[in-house]
Amino acid sequence: MIFLIFLSKMVLFFSRVFRLGSGSTWPGHMTLRIDPEIIEKIIDLNKDLKIIVVAGTNGKTTTTSLIKHALNKLGYKVFSNSEGANLINGIASAFLKNSNLAGWLDYDYAVLESDEFTLPLLLKKVTPRVVFILNLFRDQLDRYGEVNTIALKWQNCLKALPKETLIILNGDDPQLYFIGKNLRQKKEFFGVKNDLMKIKKIPHDVDFNYCPSCFSLLDYKSISYAHLGDFICKKCGFTRSSVNDFAEDMINYPLEGLYNIYNTNSVYLFIKKLFKVKAQRFNQLMKDFQPSFGRQEEIIYKKRKVFLLLSKNPAGFNQSIKTVINILKGQKANFLISLNDRIPDGQDVSWIWDVDFRPILEKAKSVFVSGDRLYDMVLRLEYESAKKNLIPIENLKMAVESSISRLDAKEKLFVLTTYSAMLEVRKILVGRKLL
Amino acid sequence: MNLNIGWLYPDLMSTYGDRGNIITLNFRSQKRRIETKIHKISLLEPGESILQMDLLFMGGAQDKQQEIVNQDLQKNKGGYLEKAIFAGTPSLNVCGAYQFLGNYYLAADETRIKGLGIFDLYTKSPGLNFPRCIGNLIVESYILPGVKLVGFENHGGRTYVNDRNLIFAKVLKGFGNNGEDGQEGFIFKNAIGTYLHGPILPKNPELADWLIEKALERKYGKKIKLAKLDNYFENKAKETIIKRYT
């Protein structure tokens, strides 16, 4: 054990010294090959460590850091697998990195972000006090497979948890509400207040608006975004109740966008129930929260403000667009969209045709397009609007430089990219690689 | 001139950016001053409306959605679709839709799910322990000689065609129908079945134009030569994938 932890720390040390990356996955990867149960063994040595697991298609990294921030402010020691390393090797790395040579963890909480596929495996290894199930959207079908298959896998692994585990689910999502209702564990649902549900017609990025109970067409009184909303099945009566929307609580949301109201409400629900914290105190806790890299992160580059929004699937991209349009309040802006099709992005780029780009094209002075699949994106945008404000540039560095050089002193550049493209843009802007 | 384009089950069979095919048909028709009207035909719309269409499109979906659609096709709309296809209505059927048109689908547990029997082919699940056919797909179609078509495929079922004269394309890279015989898709009269999504039409304007041309020729009973459009970005997008594998 000591030897293994020592070894993993050496790997971490060398990968940093030789700049092989920040070491967020390698130590775990190598140690797991020697001892696949290293996470279980470290947890055995730290019986008082409380574990929180965060899963969902969108918002995992942000929610994980919101939870970590709130717990830190409440005086607890917390570690997490930050930097989005959310497979088992990344989670093992987080345990190894934060333990001493004897395997002891000087922490109260571990907040673990989990990839959609990893959740069943992770829940076999750890027994969490709390599990967050944020949302479930179509994402990278070539990698994750069908949404229904994931829902079934989640349902099965949640069912197997001890009765005392608190499961916090999105109650505005019909499928997740259905899964939650049928669990025998403690559960709580979060949502958003009715004023925020402004959509009346089913949007295009929904691919299943059928009742998870009887499979007839679901009716929505109103929708917040994608398939999240106030739903009812007229055939079997399936509808939601006791969803915490916090309409009465005056929360100051630390991040822009409706999707972040969901993320924040899930965290507030947890903090309120477990620590009896009320809205005013919660607002104080969250006051100095800083977004995670690439998630509404603002970077100053050559005296210009660059706003990064990771946008990797239809529901997420549409939410990024709505957020930008809200921030702009009618002003024009410059955009850079970079589309890659590497493993972490998903190799199938067909999803861009399910994103509604029109608002961007209408507000844009110019839209710079780059990335491995820039011409697919140019085509998508060209077929959406006849406006000729598209500027494709194959070389990403040149695209970043020229989009920024076009900005007036007070203008911002909004960068919307897939995962690997976001890391590349960030490297250009900040000068070093994060992962 | 005008075209009525029927989009079958847009709320259910629309998993792989399939809307892009409708956007492309619309865009490329309107560029030539051909008016278009898109008719969404799903569970609640009557099957008869299929017969009013000049061009039909149906996309792919996930298993649960396909189950719902298959029921509706068997009960309500399959007969109309068959009539339209036999009458020569150009139609594009991608992935799940392609499988529906065949004789049957043999599931992993050996249950036989009845298809519409419009295309003489069948699809078989290789079993749960076999991987899906996933990746970029490049083919050359027998109806567009010399033109490479590119897209993405993601399907578990393997399709077997009985009459090789009804194959749509030859696989240059990827799996195609079954990953064994180097063949891809099916064509019967003016109806095409294929595993190419991506979506298929934006990056393959030749095929989009083929469908528009056939629809107009059938509707107006004369030879149609569509005006040429500038396909610069369409070709660039296509070349990105072709270059990667050559």
Model description:
Chain A is built from 16 helices and 15 strands. Chain A is α/β, with parallel strands linked by helices. In chain A, helix 1 runs antiparallel to helix 2 and helix 4 packs parallel to helix 10. The longest helix of chain A is centred in the middle third of the chain and has 18 residues. Chain A is globular, with a radius of gyration of 22 Å. Chain B is of the alpha/beta class and 246 residues long. In chain B, helix 1 packs across helix 5. The longest helix of chain B has 24 residues. The termini of chain B are far apart. At the A-B interface, helix 8 and helix 14 of A face helix 1, helix 2, strand 8 and helix 6 of B.
Helical percent range of chain B? 25-40%
CATH topology (level 3) name of chain B: Rossmann fold
End-to-end Cα distance of chain A:
27 Å
The topology string of helices and strands of chain B comes to EHEEHEHEEEEEEEEEHHH
Mean pLDDT of chain B: 95
* Number of strand elements of chain B: 13
